[in-house]
């Protein structure tokens, strides 16, 4: 797996809209965080705010925007403006080869889970993290964590410690105790299910699977997990880390209960409650890079946690 170079203050980064159109005010607030707090220099096409039906411009516009971002010789990263819907439509136009030859960090989540899957499958590590329109609402600790992930300068956590910013994330509970190591893959449960039967579906054998979603009823979460299981996509998965599931409850049944039951039945180490997903506090996770999932037994020291093994100590210029 290729780990793209870490970012430095002053780096040029491309901003792309591969999915849905977006709120201009949220976009401007996010750009301010990107420049003022992260020290990066955003660059984008003049038509980034285009709209066509429920998309940020037609497929041709969004595909060309992607190719221009990849080809930009000064840019060190590509940030997505928003998820929503539409990234799947341009997957055939995304050639991973240029990014494997000259790697850039790719950052986003939600609908762009499908782009993560394509790039991770090709051999490039990426960052599941806030989109630009979410950055303006992100709390300070989530922005600080993102900065450390982008810079690759986090220190490794001790054996029983909660990981510090950029080194990993703590969860709230163990679903099934144990420990697992492998590449961290995944993202939106809905999109992972929709990739079944396509050439872009991630290979999860030996992986730590990250799952999160929003605004899906409990039976829909059950449907997606059942689809993944019946398709064989979950065969050989090493461990599972469940993130946020906002707006996934009904009056009589929380969505987390359905996910917890399905995950526990897989018989692998699993944790829940890591702060990743569609809430404002969406903490970044490197995808494709090797990590370790620790799901403590009752009485064992330390919190449930997902550690970013391959990502720490990667700052440019570090010894």
Would you identify the regions where 5 or more consecutive residues have pLDDT less than 50? none
- What is the CATH level 1 assignment of the largest domain? Alpha Beta
* Main beta sheet: 8 strands, mixed
Helix content: 25-40%
Question: In the CATH scheme, what's the topology name of the largest domain?
Answer: Glucose Oxidase, domain 1
CATH architecture of the largest domain: 3-Layer(bba) Sandwich
Q: Strand arrangement, largest sheet?
A: 6-14-13-8-9-10-11-7
Describe this structure in words.
The chain is α/β, with parallel strands linked by helices and 319 residues long. It folds into two domains: 12-137, Rossmann fold (3-Layer(aba) Sandwich); 168-307, LD-carboxypeptidase A C-terminal domain-like (Glucose Oxidase, domain 1), CATH 3.50.30. Helices cover 28% and strands 20% of the residues. The chain has nine helices and 14 strands. The chain has helices at residues 24-37, 59-71, 97-101, 113-122, 132-135, 140-151, 189-194, 218-231, 255-264; strands spanning 12-16, 41-43, 75-80, 105-108, 126-128, 168-170, 173-176, 178-188, 208-212, 239-242, 270-272, 285-287, 290-295, 305-307. It has an eight-stranded mixed sheet. A six-stranded mixed sheet has the order 2-1-3-4-5-12, sandwiched between helices. Helix 4 (113-122) links the parallel strand 4 and strand 5. The two termini are 21 Å apart. The model has no long low-confidence stretch (mean pLDDT 95).
């Amino acid at each position: 797996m290729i780990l793209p170079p870490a970012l430095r203050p002053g780096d040029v980064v491309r901003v792309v809209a591969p999915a849905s159109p977006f709120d201009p005010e949220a976009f401007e607030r996010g750009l301010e965080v990107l420049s003022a707090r992260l020290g990066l220099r955003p660059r984008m096409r003049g038509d980034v705010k285009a709209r066509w039906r429920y998309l940020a411009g037609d497929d041709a516009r969004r595909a060309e925007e992607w190719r221009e971002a990849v080809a930009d010789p000064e840019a060190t990263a590509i940030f997505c403006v928003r998820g929503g819907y539409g990234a799947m439509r341009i997957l055939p136009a995304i050639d991973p080869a240029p990014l494997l030859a000259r790697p850039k960090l790719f950052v986003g989540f939600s609908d762009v889970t499908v782009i993560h899957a394509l790039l991770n499958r090709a051999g490039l590590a990426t960052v599941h993290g806030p989109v630009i329109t979410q950055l303006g609402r992100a709390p300070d600790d989530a922005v600080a964590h993102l900065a450390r992930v982008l810079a690759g300068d986090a220190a490794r956590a001790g054996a029983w410690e909660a990981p510090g910013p950029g080194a990993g994330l703590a969860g709230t509970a163990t679903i099934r105790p144990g420990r697992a190591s492998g590449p961290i893959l995944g993202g939106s449960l809905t999109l992972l299910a929709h990739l079944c039967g396509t050439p872009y579906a991630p290979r999860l054998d030996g992986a730590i699977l990250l799952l999160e979603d929003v605004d899906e009823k409990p039976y829909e979460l059950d449907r997606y997990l059942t689809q993944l299981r019946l398709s064989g996509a979950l065969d050989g998965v090493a461990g599972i880390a469940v993130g946020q599931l906002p707006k996934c409850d009904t009056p009589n049944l929380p969505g987390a209960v359905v996910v917890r039951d399905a995950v526990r039945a897989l018989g692998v180490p699993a944790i829940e409650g890591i702060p990743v997903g569609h809430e404002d506090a969406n903490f970044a996770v490197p995808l494709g890079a090797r990590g370790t999932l620790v799901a403590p037994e009752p009485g064992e020291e330390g919190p449930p946690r997902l550690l970013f093994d391959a990502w720490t100590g990667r700052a440019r210029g570090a010894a």
